[in-house]
Amino acid sequence: MNLAEAKQKLEKIGQAHLLDYYDELDEAGKAKLLNQIEATDFSVIRLEKDEAGNDKFEPMDVMKAEEIDKQRAELEKIGIEALKEGKVGLVLLAGGQGTRLGFDGPKGTLNIGKTHELYIFECLINNLMEVVNKCGCYIPLFIMTSEKNNAATVKFFREHNFFGYDENFVAFFIQEMAPSVDYEGKVYMEAKDCISLSPNGNGGWFKSLYNSPCFDTALAKKVEWLNVFAVDNVLQRMGDPAFIGATLKSGFVSGAKVIKKADPDEKVGVMCLRNGRPSIVEYYELTKEMRDEKDANGEYAYNYGVILNYLFRVKELVEIVNKDMPLHVVEKKIPYMDKEGVYHKPEKPNGYKFELLVLDMIEMLDNCMVYEVIRNKEFAPIKNKEGVDSIVSATALLEENGVVL
Ligand code: UTP
What is the pTM of this model? Predict the structure, then answer.
């Protein structure tokens, strides 16, 4: 793309300011900026809110922990068999920027140990090694990073010898980026030769994996199911044989791990049927009537929140890979360069990012096995610097589960 073409593209969409410093740049800087402008899909910038929908919500069947325990031996057997046959791959979503935590570097590289080093990535690999030991084989692990943190993540894993995991079973792939804007919808600049781009949310994971070289490798060839999970839950159980077994046995095309809400007003998305399809109703969509509704056993009907641990059948994912997904406008702290050319790292949110979310994939599929896990055993997210879902709360839960910090 040449300068005239870039100008034309940007003027049409009210973003011509991205070329304000063009004349000051050297040849390499000019080429970099033009390439970025050419490659960026600015159509994601849409600040107007969607109309409130008239969706019809219904409660959804959940396989409760008690029932799982009764069937555990059988479910584990099915899961272990699938794992041994190489039919299950794992996808670690590690492309986020962890802006709430404000840690410089990939979140997985955070050391949460007290008396010895213990990194978030290490916690996850330690949990995974339990499955490896149970099955007697390694499980393909695909790690999604972004352009911003790929090099640091790969280097970290290499430096730490993959925390004992067989590196031949690990592959990295990079997610797509989207522009970040101020409250008026103007794209921020990060430097004179660089527009502000950030990872496009965790919902683009399959498209990025599908289009990456690692999808064509021997590692991915046999994989029929993908277990996707967040990096920041240090009690996360990946490749859980009983969860895999339950989903396979159900004949459904996806599965979601859920936990019982701490109280009816907890701000989590809960599994439900939306217009007859499996879906997640966000806490702000939950009406008072729905919140108070009880099922036949006298339990709250909308009571199971998702924890970002899903299982998807690859066949169906391939069918929907090019379908449009909803874009979520998320208020975030966005580092930027001001008009004077000074770089800022804001303390408070200063604009929006546009994100695809993995939970929207659930609604694109026909059915979902909803699988209850025990909160204190499997859910210890590190999102914030302090308070709820912080290092303090997560490490307390790790200790409660016998992990030595
Ligand atoms: P979050 O939205 O909670 O994490 O993503 P974040 O974006 O890293 O953090 P904040 O909101 O800025 O503080 C949940 C999971 O999805 C991954 C994250 O790495 C985390 O595992 N994720 C998120 C991606 O892989 N890519 C993204 O673009 C966003």
Answer: 0.93
